[in-house]
What does this fold into?
Amino acid sequence: MKKTSSAIMNRLLPAVILIAAVIFVLNRFARREVFVGQQIAGTIPMDQIDHSAWNELLRTYVDDDGLVNYSGWKSSTSDRRKLQDYLSTLSAADPVATCPTDARLAFWINAYNAVTIEGILREYPTSSIRNHLPQVLGYNIWKDLKLYVDGQPFSLEQIEHQKLRTMHEPRIHFAIVCASMGCPRLLNSAYTADEIQNQLDENARDFFRRPSNFRYDQASKTFYLSSILKWFATDFGSHRRAQLKTISAWLPSEESRKAAVGGDVGVSFSDYDWNLNDSQNAGR
It folds into this structure.
């Protein structure tokens, strides 16, 4: 019996390898990479990058709840160009030039959010960023939409995992926005080195004030948390008690803060809302 199974596997192995190779080749050629910004050498330290144009766009098209007027933005040729020019400004950054950590944080958070908005505007009207992921083959907005910085292309995934998460600042998860209702709100002002610590704290507190992201049931001693806290749990601590202590500073009530610090609570994670963070969805 063992010999028979081994013989069958030996006969099937070349076919399996061939199929895998065909899928790899098809996927490579089916993918549609999209590049934004400019392929230029970076000459400006990140703390000297001007984010004022991004700030003006956010003030114009994003409300206090972080919902985006995609329709209005899409219809404005001048503001579509302003966003693309801002992305080109980011391309001129020198990622190895010495600058404060806060400036790097602000740069990459703004970059992530601006590239995401650009990606959605290219596809709008759409109901979800997940509409722009491949079922089997094709364009993946998180992998294939890439911003040039210092001549190198960075996808949204690379910005998040290789740049931001390596800074060991868990509050980034309340600042970078994947254009979904389940995301933290998109702050309607640009992050800046001078203000980023306050901005990160403000958005973290806002995140946990929203019942869709956090709810404490005292009777059952249970926290109901956004799935973001499950997906990126280790960014908040190496174990559950440490993770709860980390988020305690941003929780909305004294009771919930004490429960988090004590660690004597159960945790349940809510379903994530992937609907677009479109101002047309206000009141959902």
Summary: The chain has a mean pLDDT of 93. The chain has eleven helices and eight strands. The longest helix spans residues 2-30. The longest strand covers residues 145-149.
